[in-house]
Amino acid sequence: MPSFVKKPRQAPGINTASLPDIVFILLFFFMVATRMRETDIKVKQVLPQATEMEKLEKKDLLSYIYIGAPEKRYQKELGTAPRLQLNDQLADVEDIAVFVEAEKEKMPDENRAKIIMALKVDKEVNVGIISDVKTELRKANALKLTYITNKRMEEN
Amino acid sequence: MGKKTRGTPEINASSMADIAFLLLIFFLVTTEIAIDEGINVVLPPWTNEPPPPIETNNRNTLIVNLNARDQLQVEEELTDVRMLRDLTKQFINNNGVDPHQSDNPQVAVVSFKGDRGTSYDMYIQVYNELRGAYNDLRDEAAKRKFGKEFTELTDTTKINEIKDMYPIRISEAEPSEFGAGTK
Fold it and tell me: Nearest by CB to A123, which of B45, B118, B121?
């Protein structure tokens, strides 16, 4: 006669051997997806603060122009007058037209007209150089512009 | 006494997951997905002709000047930046009430001019306030009409309606040469 008394079953242990693999895949994903800052910024960048900005979510349309006085460690060779930085190199206002063309070249055709020049400008720079930059951008027909600023906390 | 044949001891891999998790969390935390924020501007296309002179006596133009010492002048009066937003809003939204201010928001133009010596910080403060005035007015209009803030609107016809009510018309003149030599 078969006995109906069940043996107390032990919960089967879950095999966790594949867990590290899963986690490693995640890990590799983040290692690859993490983009380290590729440009070394050689000019001072203390951005002004504002309240009326919009989020710039279309990163692929942005091309950055950095303006500021050279950092302390570069001042010996470069002086203290505000300079432009395009990609990795310090440049002059006249180089903008070439830079805009190069940046447009990198984009897919349909996006070229939508290029947005993102100006990251140090607080202490004078408006004169920015005005020169804007004139060059107008000549290069890159009319969309954004001043990158930090968010200002309201005082009240 | 015979030795038992020892099997290779199994390596306990349960801590492997912990190590990997630690690394994972490290990368999660250090990954920077910062989105930049900026004030968007559209420049006028380049022409070789000189721009038309600004009609300074026109009631539909608000003259905002910044000098090389970062002093702000609105309609030839020294003004504090904190006042600028309200002044601009009043000017734009006058709708013909005050004879010295604009006829309606569609024709109101803010003419903004700096010196080459003006600091970028001050320039942005002023530009921010001018933009803020327009944004505030748009928000108010959107709330009145649709019960939502302007930025929360999703329907493009509604957005365009508000945009047409308050078109952003900030004209920037080339900065004057004054203060060009100073840092």
Answer: B121
Residue A116 phi/psi, 5-degree rounding, is -115, 125
ipTM: 0.74
CATH topology of domain A49-151: Nucleotidyltransferase; domain 5 (3.30.420)
Measured between beta carbons, the chain B residues lying within 8 angstroms of A139 are 46
Number of domains comprising chain B? 1
- What's the predicted TM-score (pTM) here? 0.77
The tens-digit pLDDT sequence of chain A (156 residues) is 565 766 667 777 777 778 778 878 887 887 777 666 667 788 888 899 888 888 888 888 888 899 999 888 888 888 888 888 987 788 888 889 999 999 999 888 888 888 999 999 998 888 889 989 998 998 888 889 999 998 887 654
**Maximum distance among all Cα pairs of chain B, rounded to whole angstroms:** 116
CA distances (Å), origin A98, targets A54, A59, A61, B44: 28, 21, 17, 20
Among A30, A127, A148, the residue with its CB nearest the CB of B31 is: A30
